[in-house]
Design a protein that fits this description.
D-Maltodextrin-Binding Protein, domain 2, 3 domains, 12 strands, alpha/beta
């Protein structure tokens, strides 16, 4: 058994398709098939169920894959640790976040404080974050939705109210608060399934036995406020976006939502089994040792007066 066999097996297990795996590995399919067959012969058990040209990872393959993932990840961590020890810098820290607006100011401050750190930023959904952490493609995720797993650790960074943003002149402009039934027939600007804003919207409506009317959905939560301002609908926006909005020309009116748990919780999540570079360790200390965002929520009616100034 050698490393090449293990890497080939992991790729075939991911695709469950010999041709696609061969294309990814840049090897001939017959050669890949022979390598997998030799591995199975050495283990004394088939790792895949074969039905014609289709293959599926079987129970023995699933057991073996868990060990292969750990072994190859440890070797990758070892190579990374050697590179960092040889490097004069602090190494690399990779961070995934659902929206870049949330994390960008903090990463900027971290880069200023640690200019020798190599910082990489990714925009990912919660599902992608879970995969990235398990595959050790990122060191940390700043998540607005719960990420679960025995291999994960997390710490709460911030908890903030989520408000309803409406265009100026809308029937709700000037209201202090609304209930979900009152906005049941309103078109909503939101994100696609998988993003925290959509998950919150669907949950709040489901608790009232309703379903939201979605008029516009996208992948960048930061664009929602612009679309609401343009009159394309109303939407749920976190307090941090409102605070940024008071310093830009994105005029909307803000209304409290009378619903349980209409808030966002931001957490820093990492895989406890992943090797963390010096840059990653300093980033974790940096982000957890200072306020992530303003928790105080001023009256939305005062914000509107500020927007007009």
């Amino acid at each position: 058994m050698d490393l090449l066999q293990l890497r080939y097996f992991r790729t075939v297990a991911r695709y469950e398709h010999m041709s696609r795996a061969a294309e990814e590995l840049c090897v001939a399919q017959p050669s890949l098939s022979r390598t997998i067959a030799r591995l199975e012969a050495e283990l004394g058990s088939p790792l895949f169920d074969r039905q014609g040209r289709r293959i599926r990872l079987n129970q023995y393959g699933a057991i073996f894959l868990r060990h292969v993932d750990r072994a190859l990840s440890e070797l990758d961590d070892g190579r990374r640790a050697i590179r960092e020890a040889r490097d004069t810098g602090l190494g690399r820290v990779s961070v995934a976040s659902e929206t870049l607006l949330t994390i960008t100011p903090l990463l900027g401050s971290f880069r200023a404080a640690h200019p020798r750190a190599d910082v990489r930023l990714f925009q990912s959904t919660a599902e992608e974050m879970d995969r990235q952490l398990r595959a050790r493609e990122v060191d940390f995720c700043v998540a607005s939705q719960p990420l679960s797993g025995t291999h994960l650790e997390s710490v709460e960074l911030a908890r903030e109210e989520v408000l309803l943003a409406v265009p100026y002149g809308h029937r709700l402009d000037g209201r202090e608060s609304v209930t979900i039934p009152e906005i049941a027939d309103e078109p909503f600007v939101t994100t696609r399934l998988g993003h925290w804003q959509r998950a919150l919207l669907d949950r709040l409506f489901a608790e009232e036995g309703l379903a939201p009317l979605v008029s516009c959905e996208g992948d960048e939560p930061g664009a929602s406020q612009n679309m609401i301002s343009a009159g394309l609908g109303i939407g749920l926006i976190p307090a941090v976006s409102r605070q940024v909005g008071t310093h830009t020309s994105v005029p909307v009116a803000w209304v409290h939502v009378e619903a349980p748990d209409c808030h966002r919780v931001l957490t820093l999540v990492w895989n406890r089994e992943t090797h963390l570079s010096e840059a990653a360790l300093r980033f974790r200390e940096f982000i957890t040792s200072r306020p992530f965002m303003t928790h105080h929520l001023p009256d939305p009616r005062r914000d509107r007066a500020h927007d007009h100034s």
